Amino acid sequence: MQEENEIAIEFDPGIIRPNVNVNNWEELLGKMGDLLKEKGYVKETFKEALINREKEHPTGIQVGELGIAIPHTDAVHVNKTTIAMVTLEKPIKFELMAEDGNTNAEIVFILVVKEPKTQLFFLKRLMAMFQKIEVLQKIKEMKESKDIINLLKQELKV
C-alpha cells in the first residue's frame, strides 16, 4: 500500500497545455479526453464519462479573482494516473462545485486517477495549492509546459 507521500505520478508535457483556445468546457474536455486516450492514459470510455460527470457534478471553483475547474471521473476509465492541465487563452464557464452559479475558469486541472484513494490525495494537494493565489497567477502566466510541470511538482510535492 502506498503512503500519501509516495504516490507516483508522471507529468507529461504533452498534456500540460498553456494558452488553449476553446469555446466551452465540453469542447475542452472532449479535446483533452481524446489526447489522453491517444497517449494511453485513459480508456475509450473516459471522455464521455468525464463530460457526463461534469454535467452532473460540476467542478468549478472561484479562488479570489481566478476561476479554476478540476474535472475528473471514476477510476474504471483510467489506465495510468496523471494530471492534465490547461491554461486558457480566454476564460470559459464552468458551473460551481458547491453552490449555484458559475465561474470563468482560466486554469483547468483534469485528474486522471487509477486508484480511487489517490484522487482524494490529489484533491487535498490541489486545494492546498489553491490557497496560494500567487502560485496560480504564476501558472496562468507561464508559457512553457516544462515550467508548469516544475512548479506543480514543487507545490504538489510529488
Question: What does this protein structure show overall?
Answer:
The chain is of the alpha/beta class and 158 residues long. The radius of gyration is 14 Å and the shape is globular. It is built from five helices and five strands. It has a five-stranded mixed β-sheet with strand order 1-4-5-3-2. It has one domain: Mannitol-specific EII, Chain A. This is PTS system, galactitol-specific IIA component. It comes from Maledivibacter halophilus. Residues 9-155 form the PTS EIIA type-2 domain.
Provide key terms for this protein.
Mannitol-specific EII, Chain A, 39% helix, PTS_SugarTrans_NitroReg, 5-stranded mixed beta sheet, alpha/beta, 158 residues, PTS system, galactitol-specific IIA component, 5 strands
Helix content: 25-40%
Q: What fraction of the residues are assigned to beta strands by DSSP?
A: 15-25%
Q: Which CATH top level class fits?
A: Alpha Beta
What's the count of strands?
5
Element-level helix/strand string: EHHEEEEHHH
Radius of gyration: 14 Å
What are the low-pLDDT stretches, counting only 5+ consecutive residues below 50? none
CATH homology superfamily:
Mannitol-specific EII, Chain A
Count of discrete structural domains? 1
How many DSSP helices?
5
CATH architecture: 3-Layer(aba) Sandwich
**Strand order, sheet with most strands:** 1-4-5-3-2
Q: What structural class should be given to the helix and strand makeup? A: alpha/beta
Mean pLDDT score: 93
Q: Could you name the CATH topology?
A: Mannitol-specific EII, Chain A
Outline type: globular
Distance between the termini: 17 Å
